[in-house]
Amino acid sequence: MKLTQEEKGLLDSVEKGEWKSASRTLHAKRLVTAMAARATLRKDKRVNIRMAERDLIRFQKTAVHEGLPYQTFISSILHKYINGPLIEKAG
Asked: What is the pTM of this model?
């Protein structure tokens, strides 16, 4: 197969490992976008609530599993519930 000079240059570059997988780049872009979105959604009001200790412990354990601070996790659940995507499980 005959390659143009430009194609030969691209092939050499790829063979030297100078290119990165697009999937990694896309993943990095999504990660940065998500981080920026979180940073722009500032929480500007404070709420204090009382709850059973066992519920708080379950929130904290689940938050650790999700990789979030427990207060962020609780806020996320409340946000999802009030906006509709979180629904009560049929008992």
From this structure: 0.49
